[in-house]
Amino acid sequence: MSDLPGAEKDWSWQAVKVFTVLVYIFMFAPILVVVILSFNDSQFGGFPMTGFSLRWYSKLMENEAVIRAFKTSLWVALITAVVCTVLGIMGAMALVRYDFPGKQFINTLLIAPALVPETVLGVGLLLLMRWAQQPRTLVLLVLGHIMLALPYVILVVQSRLVGIRKVYEEAALSLGANRFHTFREITLPLLMPAVIASLLLVFTISFDNVTASLFWRPSGVETMPTQILSMLKVSISPEINALGALMILLTVGVPLIGGGLARYLARGIR
């Protein structure tokens, strides 16, 4: 590129920008269409729109199956987020602050679920449950979500913890504080941006999970993603567009709020 004339460089750069814009349009245009059609008054989703209406959102709120799936996903995601955040902080503290035999192996083992495709993990754990003659339960579904989301908490907290100098903790210990008080008063406030970001990230990962929930959910229990799939098998109702728009709002809005809050807390700490 450095040997090209100025005009050719400009043309090449313009071509790259145009291609990038087209890629983004290709990725996000279907999402935008779903959101727009969720306000279509017609019973048959499609263009041209016959009018603007919120009736599909109203009808969605009256759908007991959707409400039941939402409550299930909400509780599973909340429990997963809290447990993963607590375990992730403990794991990151141990891996960053202490040296012990097998440290690299344990670190790799904890991160491994993020490197293996979810379908492989889903089928593998399903086969293990079949071999052990263990029926699928809501507890196993939550444990599966924890296994999938825990690596992300460890990675996020580790990246923050590496930047926190150990001398702060050593100073507190030298002044008479025990390790618990040192963690509560010194380390945890410094880690708070990573903790908030991890909590919201894991909530989104669990709430929006399709593959694992499809394999591990108990019979008769639906989460939001599996409920959408079951509705699509019957027909493409405008309710699905409204439900998809709400899912987009939740799964995009929560990480954005988490990122903004984490940056705000990080500025306050500095």
Description:
The chain is an all-alpha fold. 78% of the residues lie in helices and 0% in strands. It has 11 helices and no strands. It has helices at residues 6-37, 55-61, 64-97, 103-115, 118-131, 138-162, 167-174, 179-207, 211-216, 224-234, 238-269. α2 crosses α11 (238-269), α3 runs antiparallel to α8 (179-207) and α7 (167-174) packs antiparallel against α8 (179-207). It is globular, with a radius of gyration of 23 Å. The mean pLDDT is 79.
Q: How are the secondary structure elements laid out?
A:
Layout: H1 6-37, H2 55-61, H3 64-97, H4 103-115, H5 118-131, H6 138-162, H7 167-174, H8 179-207, H9 211-216, H10 224-234, H11 238-269
Helix pairs in contact: 1-11, 2-11, 3-6, 3-8, 4-6, 6-8, 7-8, 8-11
Give the structure's gist in a few sentences.
This protein is an all-alpha fold and 270 residues long.
N-to-C CA distance: 41 Å
State the helix count: 11
Mean pLDDT: 79
In terms of per-residue confidence, which ranges show pLDDT below 50 for 5 or more consecutive residues?
none
Order of helices and strands: HHHHHHHHHHH
Which of globular, elongated, flat, extended, rod-shaped describes the shape?
Answer: globular
Query: In oligomeric terms, what are we looking at?
Result: single chain
